[in-house]
Amino acid sequence: MSVTYDEKKQVFKLDTKNSSYAFHITPDNRILHLYYGGKIPETDITHMLRIPNDEPFIPSDHDAMGPLSYDCAPIEFPTSGVADFREPCFQLMDKNGMSACECVYTGKYEIINGKPRLEGLPATYSNDGDAQTLELYCTDPANGMEIVLQYGVFEYCDVITRSVRVKNGGKDNIQLRRLLSCCVELDRMDYDMITLYGTWARERHVQRFPLRFGKQSVDSNRGSTSHAHNNFIAICDHTATEDFGEAYGFALCYSGSFLAMAEVSQYEKTRVLMGINPYDFAWELQPGESFQAPEVIFTYSGTGIGQMSRNLHDVMRNNLIRGKWKNIRRPILINNWEATYFDFDSDKLIEIAKEAKKAGIEMLVMDDGWFGHRNDDKSSLGDWFVNENKLKGGLKKLVDEVNKIGLKFGIWLEPEMISPDSELYKQHPDWCLHIPGRHRTLVRSQLVLDFSRKDVRDYIYGRIKEILSSANIEYVKWDMNRQLSEVGNEILPPKRQREIWHRYVLGVYEMQERLITDFPDLLLENCAGGGSRFDAGMLYYSPQIWTSDDTDAIERLKIQHGTSLCYPCSCFGSHVSASPNHCVGRITPFETRGHVALPGTFGYELDVTKLSDEDKQAIKGQIAEFDKYNPLVRNGDYYRIGDPFANDRYDAWEFVAKDKSEALLEYVQVLKEPSVFLHRVRLKGLEKGSYYRCEQTGRVYSAEVLMSSGFDIPSLWGDFRSYIAYFVKV
Ligand code: DGJ
Known about the structure:
This protein is α+β, with helices and mostly antiparallel strands. The chain folds into 3 domains: 3-319, alpha-galactosidase from lactobacil brevis (Beta-galactosidase, Chain A, domain 5), CATH 2.70.98.60; 333-635, Alpha-Beta Barrel (TIM Barrel), CATH 3.20.20.70; 650-729, Immunoglobulin-like (Sandwich). Helix content is 19%, strand content 31%. It contains 12 helices and 41 strands. Strands 8, 9, 10, 11, 13, 14, 16, 17, 21 and 22 form a 10-stranded antiparallel β-sheet that branches. It has a 9-stranded parallel β-sheet with strand order 31-30-29-28-25-24-23-33-32. Strands 7, 12, 15, 18, 19 and 20 form a 6-stranded antiparallel β-sheet that branches. A hairpin with a 5-residue loop joins strand 18 and strand 19 (270-276). The longest helix is centred in the C-terminal third of the chain and has 23 residues, at 613-635. The chain binds (2R,3S,4R,5S)-2-(hydroxymethyl)piperidine-3,4,5-triol. (2R,3S,4R,5S)-2-(hydroxymethyl)piperidine-3,4,5-triol is lined by residues 337, 367-368, 412, 479, 481, 527, 529-530, 546, 549.
């Protein structure tokens, strides 16, 4: 059993393979966190509480157990206004304008084998009983709020999930002012925090800094996860490395504005919080109405940051990503965006398709610019009607021709947007998010459709459905190219206006759920101006996400390294693109571009008709490599060996089969140094006592030699060169 309840000690404990998470119910039904860390056997652990005795200036009550000092007690679900002055999870406004609230255990709990769905939201799910759920029923006696703390336990991969559902069980309306999904109280402060920051074309770079007293956070108030900060954080020992030390990783399964915070109190303890950003959030609950907060997926590793990532990769690959494409090889696609931008027609696409087919590519994806009168990024979003000047004879004709050539066909859509220069905007100027009487700010010349509105969603979904039903379209790239501003509409009453941020996200989820339900064979790839909505929420709908518009192999080292802290490589949209690269002008070998794209979904983003014969030939080799290694990439354990943020000389990573039978080492020499021959790289994760044959050198090595001494990378001439080595257990 993953979930145990020691009735005598009033301790709930959630156990995974290598971790335990425990909390205690006090005699007056407060819920106090006890422990989260390496696995412990016993439940007699209330001594861990360490709450000071009647210190001056600490607000405290006395209950049957002794003094309970709210401001330094480890509170499982902290609430606002009741003498815990740290950041709370829960705050509301009652009919009297009071914002204080409490969370008191009712004595009712439920342990469920499996994992119930979260209404309207993405969340992890259980396969054949690989998860257990604990639901703890709580209340605020002063206002009748019902609060259900929800815990999921994935024992096999050391992952716990948390979320919370609240219901207005009182007689009066209540306004939720904040409802964070989870609070994890850690009993120390000597930690580092790791976050993934960035901007367009430079997403998810890694920053790591020591925690200090006070609050440190990352967030988004942009309505989507954002390029600026990802909704993942890690908390780890100062000394933690990839392979050593304690590390906690937290990922929010949500795609809108978020808050992720670590607060260090004056008592040197750390409170970690995550959830929907309370900034500009409010939600009206009439009596009987409920609100479900999104899920936080978190893990503990006692053996370094690498294992933290592998735990998250496992749960996302097995228990978050769904559908037909969950774990099968994806078709190798060629996307025309960097090949043509807006300047294409069906002849050009056919030309690309023919050449792509010869090279062994399997799908053509038609990117932005095929609809309305869109010849640049200034018009036509919302006018989802084929531009027959470009696609002569229509979409079906093009798709049929591409299919006849032997390629599948995929299409780009940006359903959430509207251009002021569009027929749709002429007819429905009120369909975008807007505040009456206020200027409508444009980003990339576009406004955001109000997906909190069912009529708007229904119209757009109708268009999408018609397009996808009109031809044999097997893949959709769902793009989203701006942040939300002037968030309001003329539909909801004033007291419900602040709900639009979250209603918008629910609307996006509802649309994508409809799409993959109606078209179960469709391969969906999410994208948002590159990787600005790369999050666990989106992975519930699409098994792959476009990682970044920066396709330069060397820039991608950092982007993919950062992204891999939380997300499995097999969901990284990654393509070989032209050189010089369109984002940075860097010239890199074709081979290196292939090797850097190899751990992801793999494809091409260039004009194949303009490639040299040598590069066209190289594509065949790259596809063969992809075929050979993709099962290992999809199912194996990922190990970071190099760190592109720590050195500009090389990067390396490795995939090891779960049964340790094979391993793939990838190495990129970033800058060549003179007089350094044979860089030796130590492998990880192999089976001690076993021997491995390296396909490239033909030599057999013991796992111990490969992991303790290392493998010699042959001398590579020039910058930006790459090398791969494949090992099979003998
Ligand atoms: C942003 C995406 O990230 C690109 O790949 C491309 O699809 C453009 N949008 C098209 O406008």
